[in-house]
Design a protein that fits this description.
The protein is an alpha/beta fold. It has two domains: 5-177, Peroxisomal Thiolase, Chain A, domain 1, CATH 3.40.47.10; 180-328, Peroxisomal Thiolase, Chain A, domain 1 (3-Layer(aba) Sandwich), CATH 3.40.47. The chain has ten helices and 13 strands. The strands form four sheets. Strands 1-7-6-4-5 form a five-stranded mixed β-sheet, with helices on both faces. The protein has a four-stranded mixed β-sheet with strand order 8-13-12-11, with helices on both faces. A hairpin with a 3-residue loop joins β12 and β13 (321-328). It is globular, with a radius of gyration of 19 Å. 51% of the residues are buried. The model has no long low-confidence stretch (mean pLDDT 97). Bound molecules: coenzyme A. Coenzyme A (COA) binds next to α2, α7 and β12.
Length: 334
C-alpha cells in the first residue's frame, strides 16, 4: 500500500452576528478609524455578546456546519482536536464539549494551546495521527472568544481582536495530496511580551488581579511585531525551500491575520504577489487560532479552492510559537 496522507475534505466556520466597527470603538477609547486602518488594517470585528456563551458555542457552530457540508457521519469521527486560548474552562477540554454538542460521540477529544499558531499545531497533530494509519477521520476546530479577554479601555489592544470559529475535516488518502509538510517552532523567552498575566497557577485569580485587569491580553506591540515579521518570514521561506517551491508554484499564501503590515512584510520576503495572498483581517480582526481556518472557510464558500492548488499557510503567536505548512488542496470547492 502507498503512503497514507492526511487531506482536508471540508471546511466549516462561524462568526457571531454583532459587528463592532472602528466608529463604535472610537467612541469607547481614544482612537480613530484612520489609525486602526493604517497601523493594523482592521475595519470591523465580530463579537459574541452573550456573556453566558463560551468558545465551545462558536466551535460547535463551525463543526455542525462542517458535518452538514461534508455529510460525514458524526459517529465515524474518531478524534476532535481544538485549538483555543479562550477555552470555556481551564478543564474540561473545550474539544470534549464541542464533540458532545455536535454529536461526535465516538471521538476522543483534547485541546491544543499554542495561541495564534494553534490551528497549525492541531492540524499537524491530526496529520501525524492519520499518517500513522491509526485514524481515518479527525475534526480540527479552532474557536476563540477573544472579546472576553480584551480590555475595552486599552486602546493599544482593544481594536485588534475578534471572535469566531473554523473547522476542517481531515481524512486519510493514498493520493499525493493533502498536508505535505509543516515546520513548527516555539521560544518561551517570548513570555513577557504577550500573555494573560493572571488566572493560571503562577498567578491565580484574586481581587487584586481583577482590579489590575490582569485577565486580559497584555501585549508589547512593537516587540511582538518584530518577532512576528522575522519568525513568520523565516519559517515560510524555509518550508518553500525544503519543498522546492517558488512563488510561481503557489496558488495561495494564507497568513495569520494579526496586522496587514506583518502580512505584507512576510509576503515580500517570500516574493509572493498580492493576488495570491488571502487577506480578510479588515472584516474579522485578529481571531487568534481561528484566523487561518476562517480564511479557508471564506475561500471554500467563494469556490476559489481547487484540487491540486499548492498553498502555504503560516502563523505567529504567544509563547512565542510560530510555524508554516505546505498543503496540496484536495478537492474542488462546491
Ligand atoms: C499592536 C500594534 C498594532 C501597535 O502598532 P504600533 O505601530 O507598533 O504602535 P505603537 O505601539 O508603537 O504605538 C504608536 C503610538 O500609537 C498610539 N496608539 C496605540 N494604539 C492606538 C490606537 N488604537 N489609536 C490611536 N493611537 C494608538 C500609542 O500610544 C503610541 O503613541 P505615542 O507615540 O504617542 O507613544 C502592532 O505593534 C502590532 O501589530 N504588533 C504585533 C501584533 C501581533 O502580531 N501579535 C501576535 C499574534 S496575536
Amino acid at each position: 500500500m502507498g503512503k497514507i496522507n492526511a487531506v482536508i475534505t471540508g471546511v466549516g466556520g462561524y462568526v457571531p452576528d454583532y459587528v463592532l466597527t472602528n466608529e463604535e470603538l472610537s467612541r469607547m477609547v481614544d482612537t480613530t478609524d484612520e489609525w486602526i486602518m493604517t497601523r493594523v488594517g482592521i475595519k470591523e470585528r465580530h463579537i459574541l455578546k452573550d456573556k453566558s456563551l463560551g468558545a465551545s458555542f462558536l466551535g460547535t457552530k463551525a463543526v455542525e456546519e462542517l458535518v452538514k457540508k461534508t455529510k460525514v457521519n458524526p459517529l465515524d469521527v474518531e478524534a476532535v482536536i481544538c485549538a483555543t486560548s479562550t477555552s470555556d474552562y481551564v478543564f474540561p477540554a473545550t474539544a470534549a464539549l464541542i464533540a458532545n454538542n455536535a454529536g461526535l460521540k465516538n471521538a476522543f477529544a483534547f485541546d491544543v494551546q499554542a495561541a495564534c499558531t494553534g490551528f497549525l499545531v492541531a492540524l499537524t497533530n491530526a496529520t501525524a495521527f492519520i499518517e500513522s494509519g491509526r485514524y481515518k477521520k479527525i475534526v480540527v476546530v479552532a474557536c476563540e472568544k477573544m472579546s472576553y479577554i480584551t480590555d475595552y479601555t486599552d486602546r493599544s489592544t482593544c481594536p485588534l481582536f475578534g471572535d469566531g470559529s473554523g473547522a476542517v475535516l481531515v481524512e486519510a488518502t493514498t493520493e499525493n495530496i493533502g498536508i505535505i509538510d509543516s515546520v513548527l517552532q516555539s521560544n518561551g523567552a517570548g513570555e513577557p511580551h504577550l500573555k494573560m498575566r493572571a488566572g493560571g497557577s503562577a498567578c491565580p485569580a484574586s481581587h487584586e488581579t481583577v482590579d489590575k485587569k490582569w485577565h486580559t491580553v497584555y501585549q508589547e506591540g512593537q516587540a511582538v511585531f518584530k518577532h512576528a515579521v522575522t519568525d513568520m518570514s523565516d519559517v515560510s521561506v524555509a518550508i518553500m525551500e525544503r519543498n522546492q517551491l517558488t512563488a510561481d508554484d503557489l496558488a495561495w499564501f494564507i497568513p495569520h491575520q494579526a496586522n496587514l503590515r506583518i502580512i505584507d512584510a512576510v509576503a515580500h520576503r517570500m516574493n509572493v504577489g498580492k493576488e495570491k495572498i488571502k487577506i480578510n483581517i479588515e472584516k474579522y480582526g485578529n481571531t487568534s487560532a481561528v484566523s487561518i481556518p476562517l480564511c479557508l472557510w471564506e475561500m471554500d464558500n467563494e469556490r476559489i479552492l481547487h484540487k491540486g492548488d499548492k498553498i502555504v499557510i503560516s502563523a505567529f503567536g504567544a509563547g512565542f510559537t510560530w510555524g508554516a505548512m505546505y498543503i496540496i488542496w484536495g478537492y474542488d470547492s462546491k
